[in-house]
Amino acid sequence: MAERSDRAPARWRRPFLRWLDGIAAGWAVPLLIACFVVVWTLYLAIAYAGSGLHPDTLEAWTLGRNFAWGYHKHPPLMGWIAASWTFVFPSSDWSLQLMAMANAGLALFFVDLVSRQFVTGHKRILVLLLLMLTPAYQFHAQRFNANSVLLATWPLATWCFLRAFETRSALWAVAAGCATALAMVGKYYSIFLVTSFVFAALAHPARRAYFASASPWISTVSGLAVLSPHIYWLETTGASTFTYALAHANGNAASSIGEARNFLLGLAAAMSVSTVLWIFIAGTRLKQFPADFAAMSPGLRLLFSVAVGTIVLPVLTSLVMGTDLPSLWALQGLFLFAVLVVCGTRYPIERFYTVNVTVIAAGAALAAVLVVAPIHAVYRNDRGYEEGRNFYAQAANELTREWRELTGEPLSAVSGDDSLAFATAFYSPDHPNYARPFEYQYSWGLPRKTTLDRGWAALCFRGQDYCGRWMEWVSGSAGHFIKREFTVQATLWGQSGLTREVVILMVPPRGDSASPESAADDFSASRRPAD
Fold first, then answer.
1. DSSP symbol at 147
2. How far is 95 from 98, CA to CA, in rounded Å?
3. Does pTM top 0.85 for this prediction?
4. How far is residue 74 from each of residues 80, 184, 233, measured CA to CA in Å?
5. Which residues are CB-contacts of 232 (< 8 A; sequence separation ≥ 6)?
6. Residue of 252, 242, 221, 257 lying closest to 75 (CA atoms)
7. What is the pLDDT of residues 435-444, one digit of tens each?
8. Is 230 left (phi over 0), alpha (psi -120 to 50) or beta?
């Protein structure tokens, strides 16, 4: 049937076939990715109407306001991207939602660069379509954080590594080192990708020629040079990012086995829809898999070793060190398996199947926008979110209003519950500086004197015992303060939703000793642990 359809396609298939004809001309893949970004950005705008941005996205924006070579919990890439984006685009919900999906679109573009090393024609499109049917490039990507930035950096680094290994040219070696360093300043989990590159190079038949060339050593020097500012930052600031990362290494043998099992099951579930579709596409040709694997090209064998390393190395590390291992940490590596499966087949794939998968992906996206997104928005307006996203803008605006009534000045600093503090920094018209993260308050103590002099505020949701206890402790040490409560209500398209109580603590300015510029500098400095 597939061959007959390709010879005499139905009328509705012809526009899709003309689109597939545009792959060689260079416009078909960009059009697919652009449509993907637009449709799923529209989904986010509808599904989260009446709600604030995810706290991870707000954290990235907040960190990016102050350029640094590292931040208290994460390497700096997510902050740099958010800052660069909002330098061009406005700081608004739709803008950062577009940023998240543009990052996913860029990731798919880099995946295509990897695919075209091995195949031409519509197999390149098929790789992208199968990935678009995983949750990685929509739902995982919308939480723009240290995990989702790896969606783009991993395929970029992989593409550069493949080219550096194949050509052994100095230019590609430098590109591989720089791209790998970029992945490392995205999240330290990328050490598994770096190690997988080394493992793949050592396992490859051409390893002697590669390591005898200057290519791997140029990559190493280039990568370390790019990483050197961050390494210096780690050395001079106490390496708090490593402390935060090592907090995940607190398990035992039994919990590690469970983590590894759930890790593998989670990745299998993420690829389940794509796997089922591929089984239908391959059909009886699946029996050719052993022969196809044995005849795999040297480049695909190199990629296969990288893919194996990105799965085996995290599992072994979890078993040995007792680390947490959520499967979402590895979603950015799913592209490796999609490329291997599609590009490793020696038989041609009929365009009939590519058109079918295109229709399925497009249908799923449109159903998400037209049906799922409105239902999700209405449901969340009535039920809310655990982190309280429905109330971010209302709480930020009410705190700002009460602060200005109390002091007659703009709000310059905010602390308290992390999510509320991030949200207030973003949604308040004063855009106050974000104070120290709540979870470190117990060891870092009160803000410094100059911060207290210019005044600051904090927010907690009623019922957050940990935040309430901290607020009581702070208010007992802050001198003059005002503590109030108010109720905020979610709204969606003119319809009222659930309510929640917010507790605020306001410490008015003590004097005019700090100018806005020096205050901002001091507040940034106050994030460092006390000596």
1. T
2. 5
3. yes
4. 12, 11, 12
5. 69
6. 242
7. 765 444 444 3
8. alpha
